[in-house]
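Risk mitigation, structural track. In case the binding assays with adenosine-5'-diphosphate fail to produce interpretable data, a predicted complex structure has been prepared as a fallback.
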Amino acid sequence: MLTVGLTGGIGAGKSTVVRLLAEHGAVVIDADVVAREVVAPGTSGLAAVVAEFGPAVTRPDGALDRERLGSVVFADPERLAALNAIVHPLVAERSALLQAEAAPDAIVVHDVPLLTENALGDRYDLVVVVDAPPALQLDRLVRQRGMREEDARARMAAQADREQRLAIADLVVENDGTPEELRPRVDALWGRLTERAGRAPR
Ligand code: ADP
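Fallback model:
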């Protein structure tokens, strides 16, 4: 098994690269999905969050009110740290479980938006960074995702910067061209990954 931590700044094209790797046969574990699962209704994770933040962070149906919780923690680094102390270990545990279910020769790609920010690189055999010039990230967020420019800028500014991400990369996928130009670069990345995994490319 080869484990890969894949990250990139918002709008760099991380989700697009993950989708192409999945087409090649990568087993994808999405940290955002896992982070939602561990606080789903009925979980011990949700109970722990409610014990810490109070019942006001749940909706009438008992599910976590993410907006409410978000407005609490994003204004206060200490509260964010308290939330992370509950959620991060649960995400790590569930991700490890999902990874253990993959075939012994699998290439497991962990899609982790905040890998750099949370210094998680050591958990994986390889760190892959999807990179794009910040001006292009901004352009995609505004034009393709319909974000307001100031919101897109704020989201980008809240993340690690390009240099910090590239500093922890073992492999980089440049997504600075068209989607057609991206595809062969991901094909080449897959070739490198299969090499590292010690199996024949397909
Ligand atoms: P991320 O997951 O890094 O935030 P996405 O893969 O969702 O980024 O890409 C952001 C947006 O830009 C999406 O709408 C996607 O379709 C588009 N996109 C990705 N790569 C390119 C590219 N090379 N050229 C043009 N648009 C792209």
